[in-house]
Amino acid sequence: MAPAPEAELVVRPLDGGWGWVVVLGAFISIGFSYALPKAITVFFHEIQEEFTISYSDIAWISSIMLAAMYAGGPVSSLLVTTYGSRPVVILGGVMCWVSMVTASFGNSIIHLYICIGVIGGFGLSFNLNASLTIISKYFLAKRPLANGIAMAGSPVFLCLLAPLNQYLLSNFGWRGSFLILGAMLLNCCVAGSLMRPVTPPRNPSKAVSQKKLEEQTDVYGTSLKRNCMKNFRKFLDFSLFKDRGFVIYLIGSLMFFFGAYAPIVFLTAYAVKQGIEEYSAAYLLSIMGFVDMFARPGTGLLANTKWIRPRVQYFLSFAMVFTGSCHLMCSLGTGYVFLVVYTVLFGIGFGMMFGLIFECLMDLMGSQRFPSAVGLVTIIECCPMLLGPPAAGALVDITGDYKYLFIMCGSVILTGGVFLFVMNMYNYHMLDKERAMKEMGQNHEPKDNHDQENGTMMQLKEGQESGILHSPTVRRCLQSIENAFYISGLKW
């Protein structure tokens, strides 16, 4: 039998089969990764009273945990590339267990910062990045649906953990609760064991030269003879900043993450301050998680439709505007019924955002560049995650009123959504212009916008945007933006 062509040796996504078992494992690990920083806020009031600390001080626990979770992106990507997703997720589960057990013996807030924030955050980072990466290996055509199902783990676990944590707090205190949560987090090790690596087709009859051995990559996208330092540089690929679509996405996501978690951190305390009973206040997180549970896979299904998928970047900007508007609305009313309505709407917006945010990055970068992109994005996003909740807590300490933190978070997210919408229109406009110039035979190719595998930015055909970019008013606005970049000296 003749050897297979070299092109056929590439590992292609399976879009099914064992991939759905992998999605189940990702559902568990992602569920713990995103739900735990929110669910532990139930313990904050008791910890705050025991250590006699301010709202800003207690908010640093979630902030450090989220920041470490995102800052660990490049390290996680490097480990996934070297060892695969399975051992990395198992390691993350062990780290989370250690973090909660050691935190239960803490006698100061600094102890909790280190144990829960740093150790636990890095453990969650290993769970999150490894799960997202292996999904991109198993799925292509059904990737939005697979991502939506996996990301639905967060609301499902939040819906379960919020009332469970309140029950544990009432019966065992926060120290005993942390011991039990640590044992539960060992289930991430079980989830990791399900993540069987994709096996490439073998071609034993064909000899591989030394040069080919150096050039060929394994199933995780890393050279077989590349040292650790080169791998690390690969996963801090600063050339991505030359990609216009990537920079637009990054700025919008930074604005979202600054205001994304502060409302969740203080939602229970906000309800208690209004005179709502503690169990009912904790159930607000469960309501949000329940709505979020259906919003994420629903968003994945919607994003997979023929009309939405080529415009998924616009869909993301709509989700941001919707979420920001919900936070602004929360500052206008009081009472449990009003908070339930807000929580339902917030759950829809939050579910849409997290059902889309990594899908949009995969869509922009393609599966080959996604590990590098997600590592760089997550380490940058740790900055607004680290600053958002403490800034909101400081605002509460200064004003004594929670409504101002909702106004601040809503305004930032709403502005980010508008920015994404306008700048994506500008990006499409420039891509159309660059394509037209290329067709005219001029050497004016877009920089670093050529590797968006299966991405909408390069899939758009002439007139696919339903005429929105061809409107005279829109054209004039986009031309004004282009002129502004030219005048400022930015060749974007």
UniProtKB/TrEMBL annotation:
It is found in: Basolateral cell membrane. The chain crosses the membrane at residues 18-37, 58-80, 100-124, 145-164, 176-195, 246-270, 282-302, 314-334, 340-361, 373-392, 404-428. This is Monocarboxylate transporter 2-like. It comes from Myripristis murdjan. Belongs to the major facilitator superfamily. Monocarboxylate porter (TC 2.A.1.13) family. GO terms for molecular function: monocarboxylic acid transmembrane transporter activity; symporter activity. Residues 19-428 form the Major facilitator superfamily (MFS) profile domain. It is a multi-pass membrane protein. Keywords: Cell membrane, Membrane, Symport, Transmembrane, Transmembrane helix, Transport. SUPFAM superfamilies: MFS general substrate transporter. The gene is LOC115359457. It holds the Pfam family MFS_1. One of its GO terms (cellular component) is basolateral plasma membrane. It catalyses: 4-methyl-2-oxopentanoate(out) + H(+)(out) = 4-methyl-2-oxopentanoate(in) + H(+)(in); 3-methyl-2-oxobutanoate(out) + H(+)(out) = 3-methyl-2-oxobutanoate(in) + H(+)(in).
